[in-house]
Specification:
This protein is an alpha+beta fold. It is built from three helices and nine strands, in the order ααββαβββββββ. The protein has two domains: about 60 residues, no CATH class; about 90 residues, Umud Fragment, subunit A (Ribbon), CATH 2.10.109. A hairpin with a 2-residue loop joins β6 and β7. It is elongated and about 80 Å long.
């Protein structure tokens, strides 16, 4: 008698389980099994994106307090955590085209970019007028605001102590990406 393999009439008929359709076994890390079961109970039909969000949140989750912190007069403290937040999910929209770069210098201080800050830069975004970009100008890396005026391109500082840079013929300019967020240490 042969062993293993599919036997005629064995098992459930297709679509007769609790999902009403054929199923597929998958392998999961044991640490995620309980969380996926909880997700399945909360969400009628979890999508692949729901599961991926769960995996991402599990790896990078930080507590998120429900009450905002006052920058004016102190408010009563609530010891209540609303949930967890994944900073990657909120700060990085296109992970495969995003990089970080550290700032030195003060030419962009009026834009809230200070020496020592980390910039999140997305290479997939179009460097439109008024966008802050990371550019290579004549072989030197810089962060400036793009500005188009009368068909001319300028790289604008955000500090009156620095001049605007008019891009002229013969200059080598390559835009590496658009700055999407600034991480400013305290």
């Amino acid at each position: 008698m042969p062993r293993g393999g599919k036997r005629e009439g064995a098992g459930r008929s297709k679509g007769s389980g609790k999902f009403g359709e054929p199923t597929k076994p998958i392998r999961l890390p044991i640490s995620l099994v309980e969380k996926i079961e909880q997700l399945q109970q909360r969400v009628q039909e979890p999508s692949v994106e729901d599961v991926l969000d769960l995996v991402r949140a599990t790896r990078y989750a930080l507590p998120l307090y429900m009450d905002a912190v006052s920058a004016g007069l102190p408010t009563q403290a609530e010891d209540y955590i609303e949930g967890k937040i994944d900073l990657n999910r909120h700060l990085v929209k296109n992970p495969t085209s995003t990089f970080l770069v550290r700032v030195t210098g003060d030419s962009m201080i009026e834009a809230g970019i200070h020496s020592g800050d980390a910039l999140i830069v997305d290479r997939s975004l179009k460097p439109d007028d008024q966008k802050i970009v990371i550019a290579v100008l004549n072989g030197e890396l810089t962060v400036k605001r793009m500005h188009y005026e009368k068909k001319r391109l300028f790289l604008m500082p955000a500090n009156p102590n620095y001049p605007a840079i008019a891009i002229a013929e013969g200059m080598e300019l390559q835009v590496w990406g658009v700055v999407t967020n600034v991480i400013h240490p305290v």
